[in-house]
Amino acid sequence: MKVAVKKVNLYVTKNQYEELMKILQMNQFMMIEGNDNSSKTEDVSKDEELIFRIGQTIKYLEGFREKRKFFNYKEASYEEFDDRSGNYLKLLETIEGLEKRENTQALKIKDLDKEIENYLPFINNELNLEDMSRTRYIDFYHGFIHEKKVEELKELFIRNDIAHSFFGEDKRGVAITFAVLKSDEKTYLQEAKRLDFKEVKMPVYDGNISEYIDNFKIEKIQYEVLLKETQKEVSSYLQNLNDLYIYADQIASDKVRKQAPYEVHSEELNIVKINGWIKSKRENELKEVLTKNEIAYELEDAVVADDEIVPTALENNKFVEPFEMITEQFGTPGGTDLDPNPSMSIWYWIIFGIMMGDIGYGLLLILACGLAIKYLKPKGGTRKLLTVLFYGGFTTVLFGILHGSFFGFDFDLGAIIGSLFNQKWTLVLLNPINDALTMLIYALILGFFQINHGLILKAIRLFKLKDWQGAIGEGIAIVLILTGLGLVVLTFVLPSLSMWVGVSVIILGVFLVLVFTSNNQGILKAITGKLGGLYGLVNQLSNILSYSRLLALALSTAVIAFTFNTLAGMLAGNIFGILLSIVIYVVGHIFNIAMGLLSTYIHDSRLQYVEFYGQFFDGDGRSFRPLSLELNHLNEVINNKDFGGNEV
After folding, report:
1. Domains of the chain
2. pTM of the prediction?
3. What is the C-alpha separation between 354 and 553, in angstroms, rounded?
4. Greatest CA span in the chain, whole angstroms?
5. pLDDT tens digits, residue range 35-68?
């Protein structure tokens, strides 16, 4: 249901502003809005930079966990959450330092690997590197030649009596070292390069290349030891990961709070003004909390501008609240809208069960979603969605019993119970595959009642708006016509019921449409307007026909389950076939549940959005979203009783 919201101005001294904002945020008292001309916000650039740093450090540290806990509920007391001692920043900087050290060590190891890899093909060259670089009459050249050019280069060297040696090879080619007289170096080096010789500069070192590489290997081992020590030290901080989660959400909440607009009411008295919306019933609670925390304040009602949209606040019971997510995807109740959720939730819940309609699928939904809600403790829209599916599991079981289906197999619970008492009982109302026409009739009957429910809500809304003429002509009258048509159709099933009863109700409805349809645009337009009101009846009949999708969805779920069961049964002739049939059975039903849930969610929502909401709901409002903590990592912050009085 919708609860009253009022606009207020809250005045406080600048030196108590920060504490006040924390109280408002922790207790979610106000939806704060500003004036574009005079409102101010605080700079959050440093917070954004810090949020990025914390996020990167969390990601880095999480990489050291051997395995992630599946059920990992994270909470903190407000005292921990609002810790401003600097310990969290110190922890962040420490881990950042370790990450930098680890990266430096890992990079050094990588560079050493490159050096080793670069010279490894020459490892069998036993000449002293320093001696080769200091010869007076001879120059030594080292490099690589493609293996296709090796023979050609070898012939060149042999023909010209040039000393050379071939060594190992890698992706660059075959390693080679050759020596030429300084007077001939240009000629033979140019010839070698013509054959695509790629020169490699050798280091100046008093020893051969093997000894040079060994030094790198020793240095690499030393750095690997240091790297392991660093990584071990980083792992020791995994126990502090929750502190980083707290710090991340603390700074994110600070950022949100700083972005809340305020006005300087009096520079001389150092007073600021906060403008926004509050639930009327929480006004006294706000005053009590501010007084309890010794905040000097002034609270006054604010003027609501004519063109200002008052935010909508909803409060529903535990069953209805999760279904608000369905409505939020369509729109938010406006100022003249009724809260559709109490009505919609029941219809959505029933239709969900009809479309899925299998005992086994329903039990899986109850078990899986129930465990996820209990142990994962999701937040926001995820929690609402899982709760909707959890509730839907119960109607799925119910209609699975009425459809006689357990994972696609025929299952009559009534017959099982009856056999215990030597009775022939049954609880199977219909089977979507065998009784498709009956299923269609039931679907249309359900649509008939939901459409009429929507029209009644439309009449109630118009009566509240004091548009009694529209309420009667556009709501009650159409309900009467549809009811009359229903009674006429019912006479074919119950011959004892007189058709004139239905006809009379239709005539009464038509009369109300003609009398009460708005007619303030002249005689001709009045006549066409009244006839148009009757033409709207065609749309309502079309809306009722849309409920045939209940048959389509229930039938598709049942047929796919039956098909996979049949296919699995055909293969179960031997041990291998049994194993294969189990795979087909499991995969098939997982596929069917996934597709069934997706289709049911979409089509059930569509029936609410188009056929039901189309009768009475505009959804042109905006949601009441109070200033609150930004919890991206924590599941909950437990309020200190001295701070706010409740747990949030």
Report:
1. 127-207 (3.30.70.100), 321-616 (no CATH)
2. 0.82
3. 9
4. 126
5. 777 788 889 999 999 999 999 999 999 999 887 6
